[in-house]
Amino acid sequence: MSKKSVHEQLKYLFEPRTIAVIGATNNKLKWGYIVPANILAGGYQGELYPVNPHEEVILERKVYRSVKDIPVDIDLAVVTVPAPAVAGVIRECVEKDVKTCIVISGGFGETGDEGLRLEREVVRILENNDMRLVGPNTMGVYSASCSLHALMPPVRPVPGKIGFAAQSGNLGTQMLSLGKALGVGFSRFVCIGNEADLKCADYVEYFAQDPSTEVILLYIEGIKEARRFIDVVSKTTPNKPVVVMKAGKTEAGAKAARSHSAALAADEAIFEGVLKQTGMIEADTTEEMLDIAKAFAATPLPKGNRVGVLTWGGGWGVVTADALAKHGLELVELPEDTLKKLDELLPPYWSRGNPVDLVGTLDLSKHFACLEIIAKCPVVDAVITLGTMGATSSFQSFVLEGPAAEELSHIKPRVITGEFLKQLMATDEAYRNEVIRLMGETGKPIIAVSFPTSGAITPMLARQSEVVIYPSPERGAKTLAALYEYRKFLDRQRVSV
Questions:
Q1: pLDDT tens figures, 275-285
Q2: Structural domains in the chain?
Q3: What is the pTM of this model?
Q4: 173-207: string of b/e by CB count within 10 Å (b at 16+)?
C-alpha cells in the first residue's frame, strides 16, 4: 500500500514535469496523434516524449521504443494503445516507476465480460505499487497551472477557480467549451472514466486541498466505494462547495450508465440522503451545473433569504417574485428610509415597493444609485438586478440582427453609430464594475439577469468570472437559492461544532 497521500500522488497528474505518450503516431486520425498535438498546442511547458516502436519522429520529437527507454523520470504517461495491449504497457510503466497514468483507450468494463477481465488485469498489475491510474475509457485531463491540455478534443478552457471531475468526457469537455464562451474558468478537469483505480473521491480529496480550486463540480453516473466518497465529501463541504449532477436516476439512465462508463447507478432516494448528509449542492440539469458553479466562484454567499429586486420593467419583477417564492426566498419589504432614498431618484409614480421598478428610466446613473441603495439596505441579503447588466449588448443585437432590424433601418444612420455603440458598451463595463464594488463592500451576492434577443453570447455575457449573468429570472433565482442552501449548511455545521 502506498505511503503517499492522494494529494501527493495526484500532483504528478495535474502538474507533471514530464509526459510520455504511449501509442503516439503520425496518423492524424488517431488519438495517439491528436492527444499529444493538443498537449503541445495548449502551451504545455514540460517535456513530452512520444513512445512507439515503429516510428522515429512524431511532432518533431524523437520517438522511444518503450517508456523504459526514456532517459528521465516520467510523471505522467498517457496511454492510447488498443485495450488488449494496455496491460503490457502498464507493466512497463510500473517497471519504469512512472508516477501517474491516463488510459484513454476504451474497450474495458463498459463493454462486457472480456473488457472487465482486461480491466481487472490492469488493476492487478497496479497492486502494491505507487503508480495511480485515471480511467480507462477517459478523455483525459486539463490543468490550468501548467497549461496542460491532455484531452481528446481541442478544448481550450479559461483558467479559473472550478475543479471539475466528470464521468463523461464528452459532457465534461463540452462544459469546458461553454465555460470558455461565458468566461467561466476552471482550475482542473479530469474525465474519471471507469475508475478502475482512482475513484471520484480521490479527485475530490485532491481538489479539497488544491489552493487553485475554490469550487468543486462533479458529474457522476454512479458511485464506487460509496462510504469513502461520503466521508471525503463530508470533510470537504465545510470548506469548499461541492456542486453535483447525478445522472442515471431512472431505469433507462442507469442502463445507459452501465454501458457508458461501467457505473452502477445509485437509487435516487439513497442519493437524496447522501446529499443531505454531505452538504453537496445538486444541479438538476447540465445548464444548472455551470449556473451554480460560476456563482460560487464569483459571488459572496447570502447571509439570509431576503432578496431585493431591481427591474427595468414591472412584468419581469412579477416573474422574479414568483421564482423567488418557488425556491423559498423572500421578496423582502423595504423599510421606509430606503423607500425615501429611492423616492429622490425615481419618478413620483414609481410603485414604492420591492421589486424596485425603474419604470423604464433611461438615465443609467440612477440605475447605479438605486442598486447601491438596495444592496446597502440592512434587511436585504442578496440582490437580483434585471435588464440593466448586458442590456446595451442586447439592444445592439436586437437592432442589428433581430427581427426589428428592417423596421428600424430608417433610424440606424442617425442613431446606431459606432460611437453610440461604444458608449453603450462603456456603460455595461461601468455597471459591471459597480456590481463588483458593491459585492466587495457589502459582502452580498448581486445576480444579474440579461435578456439577449438573438440567442448569441454578447461581449458582456462572455465575462462571468467576477460577475454572473443569467438569461432568465428563473435561472437567477434558482442559483441564488443554491447559494442560500449552502449558507444554511455552513450555519448548521457551526452550530453542531
A1: 888 999 999 99
A2: 6-296 (3.40.50.261), 300-493 (3.40.50.261)
A3: 0.89
A4: bebbeebbebbbbbbbbbbbbbbbbbbbbbbbbbb
